[in-house]
Amino acid sequence: EPEVTQTPSHQVTQMGQEVILRCVPISNHLYFYWYRQILGQKVEFLVSFYNNEISEKSEIFDDQFSVERPDGSNFTLKIRSTKLEDSAMYFCASSGRGYTFGSGTRLTVV
Amino acid sequence: ILNVEQSPQSLHVQEGDSTNFTCSFPSSNFYALHWYRWETAKSPEALFVMTLNGDEKKKGRISATLNTKEGYSYLYIKGSQPEDSATYLCALANQAGTALIFGKGTTLSVSS
Questions:
Q1: Minimal CA–CA distance to B51: which of B37, B75, B35?
Q2: DSSP state string for B28-89
C-alpha cells in the first residue's frame, strides 16, 4: 500500500537554527499538507500545496515557514529560525481520493 | 472559525466493554468527516470518510454514524480489546482538497 514517508523521524535543533523537514507524498496525489501537533494540543493545519503553489495557509504559517517541492517528489517544510514553541510533531499528508499521513517528525527545539 | 469538538477527552474501559465517542462540528459548509485512529509514534490510520447525512460505516468491531443536519458523528467500538487503545481523531473537510480541521481526539485505554 502506498505510503507517505517523512524524514527524519526525530530532530533536535538549537533555538534560532534553520530546520528542513522532508516528506515524500504518494506519487499520484495532487494535494500536499503540513500539520503539527504540540504536545497535549490539537492537530493544527499549517499549509496546503497544490499545483506547485500554496493553496491555503493558517495564521501559524508565518514568514518563518516556507514550503517547497524542489524535485517533483519531495515536499519540504522549512523553519528559518526555530523557537522553543516550534517543538511539536510535524505531519505531512497527501490526498487524492483519500488522505494519507506520514508517521511524523518530532522536532525538539532546545 | 470552524471548530471540531470531541468528547470525552479520555476514556478507560475494561476488555469486552462497548463504548462510543462523539464528534461535533458546524453543520454549514459540510463536505466530509474523517475518523482516524492514532497510536503513538505511528501515522494516523484512516478509519472512515463519511459524506452523506445518515451514513453508517463499519470496519470490524468499529462503526460510525453521521448526522450532518445537527452536526455530529458517533464512533462505536463493540467489545473493546486492549489493541483498541489509541487516540481517535475526527476531522472535518468543508470542501474537496482543503485542509482538515481536527478535533482534539478521544484517548481510549482498554484494560485486560
A1: B35
A2: TT--EEEEEEE-TTSPPEEEEEE-STT-EEEETTEEEEEETTTTEEEEEESS--GGG-EEEE
Q: Are the Cβ atoms of A45 and B101 closer than 8 angstroms?
A: yes
Chain A CA closest to residue B1: A58
- Kindly state the cell numbers that stand for A81: 529560525
The answer to whether A95 contacts chain B (CB < 8 Å) is yes
Interatomic CA distance for residues B3 and B65, integer angstroms: 19
The percentage of residues in chain A with a pLDDT greater than 90, rounded to a whole number, is: 70
Over the stretch A33-71, which tens digit does the pLDDT of each residue have? 999 999 888 889 999 998 889 988 999 999 999 999 988
